[in-house]
């Protein structure tokens, strides 16, 4: 396991992570601005995709039910937070990594507060259908499911990589994370409770939080 010294000069990976965080922040801010401004091309594209996927969801009721189970139970934000809580306990009890456990818990909490704050500020209405296949609460942008899954899966993947797990474990974890993050976003669009740009915004903001958290961990770990 790699542990950096507080006396070490900034390493190249620190600068790379900071640069990536800057790019992601700009992309997130741009999309947020376009959504808040109700930019016409974005709104039109969102509606075109949403209308098509909703028609499919109504026609394919069996697959739609599977999507509801996955999004409400497997990939639900509270399921993701519970997974993080288990990892936090394991870090403290098994590895005595109290600082990293606190970092993980705070990052997930900050990501949740950021998500809710942006939802309240933008106050974007969700799609409305005469024949809905699912329902959701609060404002639309960003997708809380997509953002939470991105934050949790991203942080846990980085911790696995940092602790040097075996190749088989790493590949399995990576596959599960990719399927989860992509799958939860697509199910939210399929079920007609989010516009496509809500999901993209959740992915972008979640990735930004992960990269900033990794940069902070590398820079300030005792």
How does this structure look, described?
- The protein has 222 residues and is mostly helical.
- It has eight helices and no strands.
- It has helices at 12-36, 40-59, 61-74, 77-93, 98-122, 144-162, 167-190, 196-220.
- It starts with 11 loop residues before the first helix and ends with a helix.
- Residues 1-9 have low confidence and may be disordered.
Salient structural properties:
222 residues, mainly alpha, 76% helix, globular, disordered N terminus
Low-confidence stretches: 1-9
Number of helical stretches of at least 4 residues: 8
Overall pLDDT, averaged? 92
Structural class, please?
mainly alpha
Q: How much beta, percentage-wise?
A: under 5%
Put the structure in a nutshell.
The chain has 222 residues and is mainly alpha-helical. It has eight helices and no strands. The protein has helices at residues 12-36, 40-59, 61-74, 77-93, 98-122, 144-162, 167-190, 196-220.
Give me the secondary-structure topology:
Blueprint: H1 12-36, H2 40-59, H3 61-74, H4 77-93, H5 98-122, H6 144-162, H7 167-190, H8 196-220
Helix pairs in contact: 1-8, 3-7, 4-5, 4-6, 5-6, 5-8, 6-7, 6-8, 7-8
């Amino acid at each position: 396991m790699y542990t950096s010294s507080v006396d070490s000069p900034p390493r190249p990976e620190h600068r790379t992570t900071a640069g990536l965080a800057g790019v992601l922040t700009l992309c997130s801010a741009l999309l947020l601005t376009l959504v808040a401004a109700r930019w016409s091309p974005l709104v039109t594209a969102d509606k075109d995709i949403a209308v098509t996927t909703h028609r499919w969801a109504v026609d394919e009721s069996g697959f739609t039910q599977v999507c509801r189970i996955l999004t409400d139970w497997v990939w639900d934000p509270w399921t993701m937070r519970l997974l993080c809580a288990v990892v936090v306990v394991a870090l403290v009890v098994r590895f005595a990594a109290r600082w990293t456990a606190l970092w993980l818990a705070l990052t997930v909490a900050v990501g949740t507060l950021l998500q809710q704050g942006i939802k309240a500020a933008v106050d974007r209405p969700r799609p409305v259908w005469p024949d809905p296949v699912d329902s959701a609460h609060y404002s639309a942008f960003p997708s809380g499911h997509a953002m939470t899954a991105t934050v949790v899966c991203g942080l846990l993947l980085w911790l696995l990589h940092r602790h040097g797990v075996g190749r088989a474990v790493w590949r399995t974890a990576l596959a599960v994370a990719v399927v989860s993050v992509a799958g939860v976003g697509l199910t939210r669009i399929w079920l007609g409770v989010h516009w496509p740009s809500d999901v993209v915004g959740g992915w972008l903001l979640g990735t930004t939080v992960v990269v900033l958290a990794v940069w902070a961990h590398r820079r300030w770990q005792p």
